[in-house]
């Protein structure tokens, strides 16, 4: 692969973030999630499989996918790839909201697709080279990207159902943020519902209808993703990793890991070394 840089553009430097996708080495699964930022995945080399609103997108080199704010998505990266991710804070589009704090961009191919892909290449390459004035050049490319998005990719005919889903996921974000901070503890649906003032039945239905995932599966995915990162980045014992991330024991961790990743934690670690 021609790209090897691991970069992140901090917010204090520019008004957006750009970095290489964390699943660049392959054998990677990112479970269902959502966030307020607008996100663009630009595949420079290799391929990725996206699941966006229950629809699968098989993306190859030279293609990009735009993920809207609060749009449920997951990613499967079976093989090495070079994918640049651009995250744009939702507030950047404040003047162009279609509804209150809501804007949506089309996933359908547009005439400017190839031009936008070239533009993202320029943004990344310019930043990596860091020649005199690179910040201004990168920012100029960024504004060109924003202009094209709001003039040619923005959806103006938004259904009430889409707005409602967006609002419900905004409420769920507060809950999932709590889960991510406390996933190592025992997190029953009943206790979480009480904390946030919902009935367990209503909260369960919110996850299933709007996040498209069972509550328990969501918590399990958070634990697995955190555990797999420790598995890759440390030489800690697998039994300790299991306990560190909310699993009852190493057997429970191994069963959940194999179900999601298709291999045991020990085999996964060997493949990474």
Automatic annotation (TrEMBL):
PROSITE patterns: HTH_ARAC_FAMILY_1, HTH_ARAC_FAMILY_2. Keywords: DNA-binding, Transcription, Transcription regulation. InterPro entries: AraC-bd, Homeodomain-like_sf, HTH-like, HTH_AraC, HTH_AraC-typ_CS, RmlC-like_jellyroll, Tscrpt_reg_AraC-type_HTH. Residues 173-271 form the HTH araC/xylS-type domain. GO terms for molecular function: DNA-binding transcription factor activity; sequence-specific DNA binding. It holds the Pfam family HTH_18. The keyword Transcription applies. This is AraC family transcriptional regulator. It comes from Faecalimonas umbilicata.
């Amino acid at each position: 692969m021609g790209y090897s840089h691991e970069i992140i553009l901090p917010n204090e430097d520019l008004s957006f973030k750009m970095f290489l996708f964390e699943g660049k080495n392959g054998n990677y699964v990112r479970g269902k999630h959502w966030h307020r930022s607008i996100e663009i995945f630009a595949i420079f080399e290799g391929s990725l499989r996206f699941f966006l609103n229950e629809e699968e997108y098989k993306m190859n080199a030279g293609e990009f996918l735009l993920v809207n704010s609060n749009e449920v998505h997951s990613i499967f990266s079976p093989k090495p790839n070079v994918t640049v991710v651009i995250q744009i804070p939702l507030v950047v589009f404040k003047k162009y909201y279609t509804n209150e704090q809501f804007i949506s961009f089309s996933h359908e191919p547009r005439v400017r697709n190839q031009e936008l892909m070239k533009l993202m290449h320029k943004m990344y390459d310019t930043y990596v080279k860091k020649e005199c004035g690179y910040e201004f050049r990168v920012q100029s490319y960024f504004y060109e990207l924003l202009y094209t998005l709001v003039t040619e990719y923005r959806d103006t005919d938004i259904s009430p159902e889409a707005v409602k889903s967006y609002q419900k996921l905004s409420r769920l974000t507060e809950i999932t943020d709590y889960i991510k901070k406390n996933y190592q503890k025992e997190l029953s649906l009943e206790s979480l519902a009480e904390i946030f003032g919902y009935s367990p039945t209503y909260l369960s239905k919110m996850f299933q209808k709007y996040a498209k995932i069972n509550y328990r599966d969501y918590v399990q995915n958070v634990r697995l993703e955190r555990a797999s990162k420790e598995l890759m980045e440390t030489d800690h014992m697998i039994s300790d990793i299991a306990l560190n991330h909310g699993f009852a024991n190493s057997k429970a961790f191994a069963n959940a890991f194999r179900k999601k990743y298709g291999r045991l934690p020990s085999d996964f670690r060997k493949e990474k070394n």
